[in-house]
Amino acid sequence: MTATETRNPNKQQNRDAVVAETSTRDDVFDDSYKAKEGPKPRMRLVWRNIILMFLLHAGALYGLMLLPSASALTLAWTVVCFLFSALGITAGAHRLWSHKSYKASTPLRVFLALANSMAFQNDIYEWARDHRVHHKYSETDADPHNALRGFFFAHIGWLLVRKHPDVIEKGKKLELTDLKADKVVMFQRKYYKLSVVLLCFLVPMWVPWYLWGESLWVGYFIPGLMRYTLVLNATWLVNSAAHMWGNRPYDHNINPSENRFVAFSAIGEGFHNYHHTFPFDYATSEFGIKMNVTTAFIDLMCFLGLAKDCKRVSRDLVSARAQRTGDGSHKTG
Ligand code: ST9
Ligand code: ZN
Ligand code: ZN
């Protein structure tokens, strides 16, 4: 029996290629990690980040209070900006660049890189590097947002302190040549700050002002700051809530869980027990497009000829794994 299948005509050939590839991946859990003996390194606060995150969340709350004064078009634009920036993380930094779970044409990669800059969550290279080390050394000191350090640390705290030295030590050993060879990724990294100013703040504010006469103030606080903060928190919930609460139908030995609330708010990324068990599956879930806008988007891109070679775990393998290591909550059929 083969481990995975891909959606294209040359099935057997692709299956073999996928199996060979997944056996040498750097996003698969590695249980060889041993914590260093002796006292833990001191936690070093980064006050610049603490102050900026506080101001950002205060601005987002103010944006929330401004909602009644925004026009319907501005609210619709906020939803568009939310979805666009969310896809830059889910379909882009996560499923494409961190996990290589499908292939994307250059126009699609450019689209996803622009969307990723609108999400302002570090450039794609840094995001994917941190994410691979998260999968490989999940719930250890080498995991950037180690959920064993509590909800707050996994959610936002990890961005407010210097990284544990093990994150950097283990991260330096990762295989990142695919990212370095991707011109779109490197271009985005080079012009990251400029692209964030334009796409995360100026474009969301400017479009409603220019096209339908919304005030720049409302444009800045609602589709700008409030939308940015919502996407951040939806993403962080995957690291916090989905590493703590929910069923573990595929592997009860790990903390990542199936969390429907997170799946909804993170446009399909809350099926986290499945995702950590089969990180190379492009759908990040057994259930295809169900509660999974990101998978529907990738399917649409395949239909339009802009994406291909979506990796999928076979139903047989999923069932066998659930029977062997699941918590018993797996539903067949
Ligand atoms: C943000 C990121 O929010 C969110 C990521 C979430 C991930 C979620 C995953 C869940 C699954 C997907 C679900 C998606 C759902 C989406 C839903 C959407 C609706 N390996 O970092 P530095 C080296 S960002 C190898 O400064 P410090 C490297 O040489 C928010 N090497 O460490 C590096 O230099 P460079 C906005 C590594 O000093 C150097 O060390 N941004 C690694 O300890 C220094 O690195 C912020 O808030 C590694 N892994 O500082 C700012 N790491 O990069 C956040 C480091 O030049 N960041 N090195 O190569 C910071 O300010 C700092 O990183 C710090 C740590 C203070 C946190
Ligand atoms: Zn992942
Ligand atoms: Zn995780």
In short:
With 333 residues, the chain is mostly helical.
Describe the structure.
By secondary structure, the protein is mainly α. The protein has a domain at 44-250. The chain is 57% helix and 3% strand. Helix 3 (72-98) crosses helix 5 and helix 4 (106-119) crosses helix 10. The longest helix is centred in the first third of the chain and has 27 residues, at 72-98. It starts with a strand and ends in an 8-residue tail after the last helix. The structure holds stearoyl-coenzyme A and zinc ion (ZN) (2 copies).
Distance between the termini: 20 Å
Mind telling me the C-alpha Rg? 20 Å
- Major beta-sheet overview: 2 strands, antiparallel
Lateral arrangement of strands in the main beta sheet: 1-4
- From the spread of the alpha carbons, the general shape counts as globular
Molecules bound to protein: stearoyl-coenzyme A, zinc ion
Summing up helix and strand content along with how strands pair, one would put the structural category as mainly alpha
Overall average residue pLDDT: 93
Query: What percent of residues are in strands?
Result: under 5%
Series of H and E elements: EHHHEHHHHHHHHHHHEEH
Number of helical segments?
15
Low-confidence runs of at least 5 consecutive residues: 7-21
Total strands: 4
Provide the helix percentage.
55-70%
Organism: Hucho hucho (huchen)
EC number: 1.14.19.1
Cofactor: Fe(2+)
Biased composition (Polar residues): 1-12
